[in-house]
Amino acid sequence: MLSLEYPLPGERGEDLRALFDVRRSAGSSYDVLHGAIVPLDASGVWRYRELVLPDAKPSDVVTYPEGNTPLLRRAMVSSWCGIDALVMKHEGSNPTGSFKDRGMTVALTQARRVGASAVACASTGNTAASLAAYAAQAGIPALVLVPTGQVSLGKLAQSLAYGARTLLVRGDFDDCMRLARDAAERLGVYLANSINPYRIAGQKTIVLELLQQLGWHAPDWIVLPAGNLGNTAAFGAALHDAIELGLIEKMPRVAAVQASGAAPFAASFRDGFRERHTVSAETVATAIRIGDPASYSRAVQVIRETNGIVLEVPDEAILDAKAVVDASGVGCEPASAASVAGVRELASRGDIRPGDVVAAVLTGHILKDPGILLEYHREMQPAPAHANAPLEIDADLGEVERALEAARRVLTKNLR
Length: 416
Ligand code: F0G
What we know:
This protein is an alpha/beta fold.
């Protein structure tokens, strides 16, 4: 597997932090009517360009702009996890609603630089949506391969709407991945999966931006959902750079969280990484329904270098975590909630201690998967703890009044 090699910037420590801090303030105001191109500092990816793609010409860069995602702290989520200093980095605030945009801006920039005639990816949905949008912006035809019947509504709708040629493959994600690799090799399309080193380079900026938002104080833990393991690899690369360049002083521990039905990496971790496991994957969190993760080897290295942990959480815990994140007003897609479920599990085991500073990454937007939301709130029997079923009424004020009283009672109970 390839990775990008380029000279690190001359600045170190204080000077480099100052450079990124100045760009962050400068980037927030740009004149879209009069500027010929979006200034690179407006993007939460290109602001860190020395650590992403140092030699990109501004006119080559395909940017929305993306990144600049919020860091949130909600009492409800902290108390559910038992961790006071818990922050959530919400990557669902990216242009297409997931962290994939951070890698895709770099991959499409590179595709444009090499004159690619078409771009392709295999995906559980988010990569496809992001590729479709960035390819549309770059004016390059896009081909996306997704497992038929296993992609959530929001993601499939995005791929179609942004104009990608969408292939519903009879098989699972791992079959799509094999097919995409063959297509890249034999048909000469530019492969924009997370094994593409430009994607990984862009995804490093989730961590860089997080560290900047924390005033360049490293948290004790960074917790993320893990599927194909591209993001785990990217986080390790970012932390490696951040330590080497003196952006931060201590290495956070990385915790990668998988869904129990799709947890080959967790199985390998339990084995001390002696064996590479694969599984036939099944989980409600379709984004991470992956049985043979492509970036396995790099992710192993990251867990080793950061004294990290890999764990699995059952679908019920993922849905409960999601319901808490949603009810706090933040909202995220099911796979994203695996990180919050993971924080709770690690706290209950005593791996994360109550005083630790923990950053959990929410990888995708609440509207990515409306199907599972409606099922959870309207259909599951018995009704889950946080279910909020809609009520059909006649056009009658008395009924509204009764509903209002019931809603007040629920709120008072929750606040107690
Ligand atoms: N969370 C979300 C919302 C995702 O879409 C993905 C991966 C992950 C977490 C896991 O990240 O694969 O780097 O370990 N989605 C890919 C896709 C596979 O095709 O959209 P990972």
